[in-house]
Write a structure and sequence with these properties.
Length: 148
């Protein structure tokens, strides 16, 4: 599953599906998809979290990011997100979720013949992001010993 904030101000992860997708991979695990570039968005937590952020005079924004939930039989589930390099909210993410290892730098593909070969309708430059996700086999997990 992939989800992100595109043209609307909120992701709405708990609403009906929008700006997200579900994909299957090839036997080697490769996958590809197209999406709009995610945007930063205002974080409206409500309740005591909102009160705390207001008391701290905190900037309440999430940097542009993509959510990933990756599942495969006999592997542990991976839920993560990737942030776009250069976003002005990376250093002040309201949820403190940004880690250096999760910041990615999409590559500009200016060759419009590549754009057309990839099935885009218009011959325009686009961004490309490559990322490897590694899943752990369930059998390789170190399980805590049961207490007697």
């Amino acid at each position: 599953m992939v989800a992100h904030c595109g043209l609307r101000p909120m992701i709405g992860l708990h609403d009906k599906p929008d700006c997200r997708g579900r994909f299957t991979t090839g036997e080697d695990g490769t996958f590809a998809f197209r999406a709009v570039k995610p945007l930063a968005y205002p974080f409206n937590a409500g309740g005591p979290i909102e009160d705390l952020l207001n008391a701290l005079n905190a900037i309440k924004y999430r940097p542009a990011h993509l959510h990933f939930k990756i599942v495969a039989p006999n592997f542990t589930e991976l839920v993560t997100q990737l942030y776009l390099k250069g976003d002005k909210f990376l250093e002040i993410d309201t949820t403190f979720a940004v880690k250096q290892s999760l910041i990615v730098d999409p590559k500009l593909i200016a060759d419009t013949s590549v754009t057309l070969a990839r099935g885009f309708k218009e011959a325009k430059a686009h961004l490309e992001l490559e990322r490897d996700f590694v899943l752990v086999r369930e059998q390789d997990l170190i399980k805590p010993e049961a207490k007697a």
